[in-house]
Design a protein that fits this description.
Blueprint (H helix, E strand, L loop, with lengths): L1 H19 L6 H8 L8 E4 L8 E5 L5 E9 L4 E9 L9 E4 L8 E5 L5 E9 L4 E9 L9 E4 L8 E5 L5 E9 L4 E9 L9 E4 L8 E5 L5 E9 L4 E9 L11
Antiparallel strand pairs: 1-2, 2-3, 3-4, 5-6, 6-7, 7-8, 9-10, 10-11, 11-12, 13-14, 14-15, 15-16
């Protein structure tokens, strides 16, 4: 739990420190520094090189992605500029997600269409470092809008599962057996009932380090509440951990 809380606060601290960094001429950073626009929305965290530490990514409007590898973060080993790791796949950056689909610990490049269909490019190291393997369409979607689709490892087998989160926060999971044409998906049913929190406040991340993603809600003030994953509804339920972070800024800016 301690390590998990550390990593949670770390990702918040990383972001705030990065705002002060004069890492020009990258437009994402410059605009954040000057406070113009909302380029913070382009920032993602995902483990690109499979060392267990989430790396700092910026995704441009055209889906091209730049990575800074996490050596511990500012004042703790810093970051290594890894350059552009992906040129994009013809989809807008808002459709791009990063999640480990094939269970090799490296986050893969996903494009989620408006209808929830997903294309995957498996991470062999990224541009200049081994490239990507086009895995084609790995999920057809079920009609749930792409904005409501999330990826997180619910059952702890190392592969990110396909989740849909309704507007009230209720969540349905399809377990990843390899994806379309590679083992398919298993409908796991509704794994979490909705509640007082809007679906847009729901996040999934492994808070207690057992390999299973937990159900988090981020309040408008950035405070984070957790339900620990014991298997989810019908499979062991959840343990309410209450508030695990008091927050350090607006909730919509929080990345977990
Ligand atoms: Ca890493
Ligand atoms: Ca992977
Ligand atoms: Ca899984």
């Amino acid at each position: 739990m301690l390590n998990s809380l550390k990593s949670l606060s770390c990702s918040v601290a990383i972001r705030s420190v990065t705002l002060r960094c004069p890492v020009s001429p990258l437009t994402g950073f410059v605009a954040v520094t000057t406070g113009v626009g909302a380029p913070g929305s382009r920032v993602r965290f995902a483990d690109i090189n499979g060392d267990g530490k989430a790396d700092y990514l910026t995704v441009d409007d055209n889906g091209s992605t730049h990575a800074w590898l996490n050596n511990g973060g500012d004042n703790h080993g810093g970051w290594t500029d890894h350059g552009q790791i992906a040129t994009g796949a013809g989809a807008p950056g808002t459709h791009v997600r990063f999640a480990d689909i094939n269970g090799d610990d490296k986050a893969d490049y996903l494009v989620v269409d408006d209808n929830g269909a997903v294309r995957a490019f498996l991470n062999n190291g990224g541009d200049g470092h081994g490239g990507w393997t086009d895995s084609g369409r790995i999920a057809t979607g079920n009609g749930t809008p792409g904005n409501n689709v999330r990826f997180a490892d619910i059952n702890g087998d190392g592969k990110a599962d396909y989740l849909t989160v309704d507007n009230n926060g209720s969540t349905h999971a399809w377990l990843n057996n390899g994806g379309d044409n590679h083992g398919g998906w298993t409908d796991h049913g509704q794994i979490a009932a909705g509640g007082a929190n809007a679906g847009t406040s729901v996040r999934f991340a492994d808070i207690n380090g057992d390999g299973k993603a937990d159900y988090l809600t981020v309040d408008d003030n950035g405070a984070v509440n957790a339900r620990i994953n014991n298997g989810g509804d019908g499979h062991g339920g959840w343990t309410d951990s209450g508030r695990i972070a008091t927050g350090a800024g607006a909730g919509y800016k929080v990345r977990i």
